[in-house]
Amino acid sequence: MFDPVEKLKEFVRHPSISADPSAKEGMKGAREFVAGLLTSIGFSTEIVPTALHPIILAHRGGKPEWPHVIIYGHYDVQPADPLNLWQTPPFEPQIRGHRIYGRGTADNKGPLMTHIAAVARLLERRPDLPLRITFMIEGEEETGSPSFLPFIEKHKDRLQADFVYLSDTGIPRPDQVVITCGLRGLTLFDVVVTGSKMDLHSGLHGGVLRNPIQALAELCASLHTPDGRVNVPGFYDDVLEVEPWERAELAKLGQSEEQYREFLGIPAFHAHKGYTPFEATRFLPTLEFNGIGGGYQGEGTKTVIPSKAFVKISCRLVPNQNPEKIRDLLYKTIRERMPKDVTFELVDQHQGIPYVVVPPDRSNTPKDQSPVLARAFRAADASITEVFGKQPLYLREGGSVPIIADIKRVLGLDSVLFGLFLPEDNLHAPNESFDLNVMEKGIRASEKILESVAKG
Ligand code: BES
Ligand code: MN
After folding, report:
1. Long-range contact list for 150-153, CB < 8 A, 24+ apart?
2. Is 162 near ligand 1, meaning CB less than 6 Å away?
3. Which residues of the chain have pLDDT under 50?
4. Per-residue pLDDT reduced to its tens digit, 16-48
5. CATH architecture of 4-183+354-455
6. Test site for ligand 1: of 142, 400, 421, 432, most ligand atoms within 8 A of the Cβ
7. Is the pTM of this model over 0.90?
């Protein structure tokens, strides 16, 4: 009998940090573990090399008239630092209460294991199930999936299917599931400012040049207005009005702003006027500083004028905003505003991740939605309602899953996004965990969903 919790523990023990070149062993371990697991439940499994981290493709074939679902997941995780803030080591999974702790438990090893377990149980019960299933599990999601587009372009023929199915998005409470119907896009780049060609003694040279930290701080401070908007001409030009059904659906979330504020531990919100915090994270684009550096970072003081300073910037983008266009607007604004007595470089970190809109768009249900996809959405709604005791909500999310837009564009496939992680799961942070009750219900619901898709 397939024990999903034991399997998840084993999976989490492999430190598969895609961003860390020294974590190659952990990446390989996680990959081989998943590939072995899928083989053991009857799939023909292949580890397909890419420019960086290989992708696992595992297939259960069948008759060509059977529906075909591609289940997506990622075996890589975020770096675990700061390590001193973990109560137990990140790669030594531990169960406390009804939660399993460890890096990647929620993002994305637990949710992926949910679907592997659902498939395992279903095929044990129905070995003759008329459903073709392909697992497509990548190892670069947390670094923006650079190998994924070339991979699907190359393997297009083998990836003909009816829809893609995954859990890599969130839910507000354990009993309230969300079917994610939109994701924000991203554009990511660094600004590196150079003053003098070497670090300087601030006594010998202070007062004759603009410190690159100051130049950068002045630039950064200019990029927002006091009332919380992004202060870049044209930034909001392509943003669409939110449709009334989306606001109404979000209102059903029934979350308290005060509780959210306390959860964040902030004295007050600072959001765009006219939007609640729950609307702002879903419906509006942002410009964030993800990291800033330059000069002396150690204990005590050092009287230095650094030669360089940098900032890492990312913008979350909403429907109808184009990542390249937004990046060009930002570059233009930065070039205009940067003081002329320093030099600087703009360094692209990614080619840009487009926003995603997934049916069902309730205001305008696409007529070309395939019967299998329509059935999958109906099955998801019914099975989730049955198992979790509440109908799912259809909400957009603020985060990004880089591959979803490419899958639609290149393979023509829509994705059914079954949310599973909770706000308290601490994704990308210390003490990440996953709720094992949610996992068990997720397995039951997913098993029913897949069985209904097969039925026809
Ligand atoms: N699982 C998340 C995406 C997510 C987070 C969706 C929160 C909905 C709500 C995913 O693994 C992730 O973190 N993606 C990155 C992509 C980036 C590294 C290119 C993100 O959104 O920052
Ligand atoms: Mn993820």
Report:
1. 150/50, 150/51, 151/48, 151/50, 151/55, 152/403, 152/406, 152/407, 152/410, 152/411, 153/410
2. no
3. 363
4. 999 999 999 999 999 999 999 999 999 999 999
5. 3-Layer(aba) Sandwich (3.40)
6. 400
7. yes
